[in-house]
Amino acid sequence: LCFYYSIMDWHHPHYGTKQVPWTGNSATESPDMDVYVEYMKAQLRELLTRYGDIGVVWFDGEWEPAWTHERGKDLDDFVRSLQPDIIINNRVDTGRQGMSGFNAEGDFRGDFSTPEKEIPATGVPGVDWESCMTMNDTWGYSSHDTNWKSTETLVRDLIDTTSKGGNYLLNIGPKACGTIPEASVVRLREIGAWMETNAEAIHGTTASPFVRLPWGRCTVKSGENNLTTLYFHIFDWPADGVLKVSGITNEIVGAKLLARPDEAIGIHATDHHQAAFHLPGEAPDAIASVLAVTIEGTPVIDKRLRPGADGKLVMASGDADLQGPQIRIEEKDGQGNIGFWKTLKDTAAFEIDVPAAGPHAVGMTWARPAASSEGRFEIRLIDSAGAVVSSLPVTAASTGGWDDFESGGVGVLDVPAPGAYTLSLVPIDIKGDGLLNLRELRLRPAP
After folding, report:
1. Can you tell me the distance from the alpha carbon of 125 to that of 159, in angstroms, rounded to the nearest whole number?
2. 3-state secondary structure of 411
3. Mean pLDDT, to the nearest integer, of 226-233?
4. What share of the chain is helix, strand, coil (3-state, %, to 5)?
């Protein structure tokens, strides 16, 4: 049993710092938050002492000026004094970074972060988080809101969130009479039908060890006898029936489709950590079919990016290892880009394998406003010993706006020998609101 509790109160006469007409609040001319907090604690004491062990209390409404960091700490201490093992979200305090839901730097309370109506493009390793999501566009019931998300979207959001180490909190807005809207009921039943077959690939799993899988997602579960299961959630069924996965260095023990566990799956692996799984011609589930692959030991994934058949090595934003206080992945129009590149400490790096020495042409897809200011950075090729063996200075010119992406060549980078490298992007000079928004970087032998 878990509770949602709104710190913000729309009716109590002593909530707030002043009268707030839009809430319908019958506040006094001089509201007293100390009086209101005692009222709030009395309600919470009832909820947290009369119903046994409570799993989570999920606070909300902390963004108004009436709530302070000191009040947040006091409330956090109060709740834990009543339920020592309870889990409390970060909205008990005032350090939430907007709708992204993650805590700002500082001593803010809360056990997990709460991104709202969004799923972080790469998750946040080392941070407990859950994405709170609506089934249409509104939290409460609205007879006018018929923009319902499809079952496919909801199930794939569940998979996406789980694959990134998060929890999926799906909202239902009941009608005034307490019934659930039929559109919600239909979707919940369909989600339940998918879970009947595939629940083991969601419950008790951890985040994907892969940087990116172009055809779907992965979740992981440790088992007995030093075995681990990689659950591959296939969104785009391979036309030729062969699912190719790069980077698995562990011994592959076996594979099965959760929807057809008795059907044989052929496996072919190469010495370059490339595995091919031979699947049926058609997907068992149009939303997401799950292939459970058993390996020996803890997953050890070779995350190096390699050129395709055309010789071009493509580095997407989601492939990057991001370091720094501001930089992160953004999602726009269904595509990711590296954004919030605001300080000289913000860097992005790609692990790559280059099969040929010599000059390589570098291209990128980027966006940047303000023609009067340009972002300058350096692309550095770093060998396995940590030495910079080649570098290319780049100036990110204006494209017209942060969402106006352009593609083009930016220069030539010399590769001294075939092998494994780290390609690092290091800011040199940042003017204006940031360095650039980077969607893709490309490397191919120069003609």
Report:
1. 17
2. strand
3. 98
4. 15, 35, 50
